[in-house]
Every structure is written in structure tokens, then in C-alpha cells.
Amino acid sequence: MSNFMDLSGPNSLISDKHRLIALTGAGGKTTLVRWLSMFFKAEKKRVISTTTTKILPPPRGHIVLQSDGPHFAERIHSALNLFSSITVARDFDTASGKLLGLSREAISALYKSDTADIILVEADGAARKPLKAPAEHEPVIPLAADLCIGVMGLDAVYRSLHEANVHRSEIFSKITGAGKGCGVTPNHLIALAESKNGLFKECPENCDKIAFLNKTDSPGGEELLSEFARLLPTRKKRSIKWFAGSARNGIIFPVLNNIQKPLATPEIRFAFSQ
After folding, report:
1. In angstroms, rounded to a whole number, what is the distance separating the alpha carbons of residues 41 and 234?
2. CATH code linked to domain 17-49+122-272
3. Considering only CA atoms, which of 204, 201, 202, 164 is closest in space to residue 184?
4. For the chain, what is the total number of helices (H) and then of strands (E)?
5. pLDDT tens digits, one per residue of 128-183
6. The pTM is what?
7. Between β-strands 85-89 and 131-132, what pairing exists: parallel, antiparallel or unpaired?
8. What is the top-level taxon of the source organism (predicted)?
């Protein structure tokens, strides 16, 4: 068994107790959701991918829309029996080409029904930027969520703070202390994760929290990880677990443990690329 399968182990990204997983932030949420859904499908799990905001439809796979008629729960159950991994949404918006999200209540009902083994929820919009700070009404995290993964793109680090790189850059500045037009640093990303108004805003009290530094395959990614590994032990807030990797390439590993030994093998990455 490959090291990647240790994702269910004690130092894991996702453990067996996590069934309703919300993703916030920016810089790779959709890619991470699709990769995790493929992983859990390979593990013979029934997986629902959905959103509380808006997402682009997946390039392939079965979609169940609430707007298509009655018996929504029954249609989801039947689809999972056939495909094991599906996307669920309220409706399709022809103007934007996006799937419209389910309400928190609808997702909670799916969770309580035990229809799926894993529910992955994109709970935040980011306008395709590598970083994002939440507005007052964001993110929209289901109350039953037991794990929240906050995603941040490493490709934004040391780039100037403005709206082209950071969604809601003015709010990001207020939360992190980063000056407009100045370079975004690892300390700013850590501050975003640790702030009560930041990456895990609206996260349920007993929900586990993971900060995921995505795009380690971007230029300078390994050097940046060394800087995070140096800074994180000095922080007082230890309720957040820090992981890094490349959702696109199927790599995830703990920032503070075995940086050079990612929890993925070339064989697994190849299998997921099919």
C-alpha cells in the first residue's frame, strides 16, 4: 500500500470521522475537490461533490439537479448506486454557465440521510484568484461540517497585494496587515488562517481545521515551504493543521513533517490523470 493511502492515518489530512468536508479560500478548491472525489471513489466510497455558492460543472461525471423535479433525495440515491461519485446542485445558471449551490439545510439533510460516505462542499467563491479574504456574508459553511480545509495558493506569495492576485484585497489587508501594493508574505497567509475573520470564519466550533498551501509545484514553491516550516512553530495557535502540495498533481503532505516525502506516489498520480 502506498504512502498516499496513509491519508486515513493518525497524521492524516482526512480521517474516517470526517464525512462532511467544507472547502474555503482560493487557489485550487475545485481541483482539490475533484481530486479527493476520485481518491474516495477509488476507495469504494460513495461521494457527493456540491457547493453552497457557484461552481463550474465538472468536465465529466453525473450531475443531479434539485430543480429537475421531485424526489431529489431518491434521485441522488439512485445516481450514487450507479456512479458512486456524483455532483449535486440546486440548478444550472445558463447565463454564467455555473451550477448553483444547495442551501445549508439541503446539505445537512443529505448528511443526516447517510446517502453518501463523503460530502465535499465548495463553501466559498474566489473569482479564480490564488488568495481570498471573506466578506461579511462568506463563507457559507454547512453547520454539520466536521472538517474545513482552507486553501491558499502559494503562487500569490511575494506578488503585490491588489485585486488581480487577491479576491477582496481590501479585506485581506485589514485582516493581515498587508499594505496595498506591497508584497504578500508567508506571515500574511498565516495571519489569514489564524484570524477569526479569515480563512476559517463561520467554521463550526467543533469542526477540525486544515490549512492547505496549494501549488508547491509553482516556481520557488520548495523555498516557500521552508519559510512556512520555520515560521509555524513560533505561532501560538495550534488548532490548525498545515498541509501543502499540488492538487493538480495529486500531492499532499504535512508542512512540518517530512516535507520531502509527499503522501502520494507517481503511480497514484498517473492513475488519477486518466
Report:
1. 38
2. 3.40.50
3. 164
4. 7, 14
5. 899 999 999 999 999 999 999 999 999 999 999 999 899 999 999 999 999 988 99
6. 0.88
7. unpaired
8. Bacteria
